[in-house]
Design brief:
Mean pLDDT: 96
Helix content: 40-55%
Radius of gyration: 18 Å
Number of strands: 10
Largest sheet: 8 strands, parallel
Order of helices and strands: HEHEHHEHEHEEEHEHEHEHHH
Low-confidence stretches: none
Oligomer: single chain
Bound molecules: 1,3-dihydroxyacetonephosphate
Shape: globular
Length: 288
C-alpha cells in the first residue's frame, strides 16, 4: 500500500485510546526491521527521520525513494507514514519536495509569535499537498541529533492556539526528555498533560522521548490523550547491545561471520523485538 499521511491513523488512535509508535530510522536495516514488525503485528506505524539521519542517508530524496520502494517490495499493507522529525522551516520544505507524507515543524525555540506564524504557513502548505503536520509547543529536554531542548512544560493556552491552526498532531513538552532519562528525573507532568488535553480536545497529542519511560507512565499518558509516541534511542541501544554480543562472542571471526548481512543481523532482530514490545505497550497491535 502506498505511504499515507498520519492524520487518519492518529484520529483512530485517539478515539480508540491507544497510541501509534513513531520509530526513527537510520538506514536500510532499521527501516526493514520496523516495516516488517508493523506488518507482522498488523499495526499502523510512523517512520521518523531526523534532519541528521536524513543527511546521513545522503538526503531526504534517498530516504523517500528507499522507504517507498521497500514498502512496496516487502508487500506491506499496514498504513505507513514517512515523517520528518523535529524539522526546521527549511527542512520541512525539503521533505515536502522529496515526497514525505508527513512533517514536523519544531518552532519551539522561536518566540511564540514566530512559531505561530511559521506553523500557520506550513500547516496550509502541508494540507494543500495532502501531508499531515505536527507542531511543537514547549521544548522537549535533552539532545537529539543536534536539536537541544531545555525541557520546559508547555503552556496549555499556547497549545490551544497552535492546535487551532488545524495541525494534525501536537507535541507538547510535559517533562519528557530525548535519550536516556537521568536518575533524578521527576517523571512526566500529568497535570500539564491533563490541562493541555482539556484545552485541545480531540487533538492527537505526541509524546517525544519515548525511550525509558516506565510502562505505567506510558499507559497513563495514553489515557490522557497521547496518541503518538516517539522512540529512537531505545532501538539504537538494542542494536548496539546485540551487535556487541555478536562481536564479543567472536562470531564475526567464525566462517563468513564478517559478512555484513550476518554481522548486522542480531542488531536487526533486536530492533524488531524492541519495536514489537513498544507496539504491544502502546496498544496499536491489530489496529491497522
Ligand atoms: P528517544 O530517543 O528518547 O526515544 O526520543 C525519540 C524522539 O522523541 C524523536 O523525536
Amino acid at each position: 500500500m502506498a505511504l499515507v499521511n498520519a492524520a487518519e491513523m492518529l484520529k483512530k488512535a485517539k478515539a480508540g485510546h491507544y497510541a501509534v509508535g513513531q520509530f526513527n530510522i537510520n538506514n536500510l536495516e532499521w527501516t526493514k526491521a520496523i516495516l516488517l514488525t508493523a506488518q507482522e503485528l498488523n499495526s499502523p506505524v510512523i517512520l521518523g527521520v531526523s534532519e541528521g539521519a536524513g543527511k546521513y542517508m545522503t538526503g531526504f530524496k534517498t530516504v523517500a525513494a528507499m522507504v517507498k520502494a521497500m514498502d512496496e517490495s516487502l508487500g506491506i499493507t499496514v498504513p505507513v507514514a514517512l515523517h520528518l522529525d523535529h524539522g526546521t522551516y527549511e527542512g520541512c520544505y525539503k521533505c515536502i519536495q522529496a515526497g514525505f507524507t508527513s512533517i514536523m515543524f519544531d518552532g519551539s525555540h522561536y518566540p511564540f509569535e514566530e512559531n505561530l506564524a511559521k506553523s500557520s504557513e506550513l500547516v496550509s502548505v502541508a494540507h494543500n499537498l495532502g501531508l499531515s503536520i505536527e507542531c511543537e509547543v514547549g521544548s522537549i529536554g535533552g539532545e537529539e541529533d543536534g536539536v537541544v531542548g531545555m525541557g520546559e512544560c508547555a503552556d496549555p493556552d499556547e497549545c490551544k492556539t497552535i492546535a487551532d491552526l488545524g495541525v494534525d498532531m501536537l507535541a507538547a513538552g510535559i517533562g519528557n526528555i530525548h535519550g536516556k532519562y537521568p536518575a533524578n528525573w521527576k517523571g512526566l507532568s500529568f497535570e500539564t498533560l491533563d490541562a493541555i488535553q482539556a484545552k485541545t480536545g480531540e487533538m492527537p497529542l505526541v509524546l517525544h522521548g519515548g525511550t525509558g519511560i516506565p510502562a505505567d507512565m506510558i499507559k497513563k499518558a495514553i489515557s490522557l490523550g497521547v496518541s503518538k509516541i516517539n522512540v529512537n534511542t531505545e532501538c539504537q541501544l538494542s542494536f548496539q547491545e546485540a551487535t556487541r554480543k555478536y562481536i564479543e562472542a567472536g562470531k564475526d571471526l567464525e566462517g563468513k561471520g564478517f559478512d555484513p548481512r550476518k554481522l548486522l543481523n542480531p542488531g536487526f532482530e533486536a530492533i524488531k523485538a524492541t519495536v514489537k514490545e513498544k507496539m504491544e505497550l502502546f496498544g496499536s497491535v491489530g489496529k491497522a
